[in-house]
Amino acid sequence: MELVATDVYEVLQEKGVEYFHHANTVKTSCSFLSQGKLLSRGVLDELGLSQTGQQTDESDRELGLWYDVFLDGIDIHYRASKSNFYGPVLFRVKLEILLENWLSSLWITKDNPQNWTADTPHNDRYYQSIDEFREEYRYGNFNKMFVLRHVGGVIRLNKYLDRINLDNPKRKEDTVYLYDQAVGALKASAISGGLRNIQKARHLCKAGCSCVEEYQNMREETVKKFFKP
């Protein structure tokens, strides 16, 4: 069920949520930045833009999620002290996007859609009222996702993007550090998309974060999937 965006904004403020977050690979993020927009996988596909495939692509098409834009209420990497499953680039989006007239409503999942099947009841997929959401949502929930369904698969970034953070895997390809290569690609893409003034920085981890160890032990094919433009 659709929830009124301004009502969601009030609840998130009550819960201490300050920003939305969207994590992705360097390749897909460069496509976003070159267009100056967050784009759904369906729109990226239609435009012929580069993106990294996800294991849920087929099921998300079947479940009608292919043209939706997904946002998280927290920085999962920082909260969980480990790398984000969806990629090392983190877009931090201003919560005030919910106050825009063109975004009258949104959907909020009760669980990560990767756990759904075609038989999952609608009431088990999405919150049905703002009161239900207020009662159940806690700051730090990983599996609650904010779904922008009626925006044509597009969110313009020039007004709402607060900053971009990038993980540092501390790995090289030949003589080039993957982090440095990724930073250069993201900067070039942002310039081409008219996002020259967006702050870009290395993702800061809290004590005990295992992300570097994970990246160090990651198969070369996988780490390239995350970091290669």
Can you lay out the helices and strands and say which pair or pack?
Layout: E1 3-4, H1 5-15, E2 19-24, H2 26-35, E3 37-39, H3 41-47, H4 57-62, E4 69-72, H5 76-80, E5 89-94, E6 105-108, H6 122-125, H7 130-136, E7 145-148, E8 154-156, E9 161-166, E10 172-173, E11 176-177, H8 178-192, E12 199-202, H9 211-217, H10 220-227
Parallel strand pairs: 9-12
Antiparallel strand pairs: 1-6, 2-5, 3-8, 4-7, 5-9, 6-7, 10-11
Architecture overview:
This protein is α+β, with helices and mostly antiparallel strands. 35% of the residues lie in helices and 20% in strands. The protein is built from ten helices and twelve strands. The chain has helices at residues 5-15, 26-35, 41-47, 57-62, 76-80, 122-125, 130-136, 178-192, 211-217, 220-227, and strands at 3-4, 19-24, 37-39, 69-72, 89-94, 105-108, 145-148, 154-156, 161-166, 172-173, 176-177, 199-202. The strands form four sheets. The chain has a four-stranded antiparallel beta sheet. The chain has a four-stranded mixed beta sheet with strand order 2-5-9-12. A hairpin with a 2-residue loop joins strand 10 (172-173) and strand 11. 35% of the residues are buried.
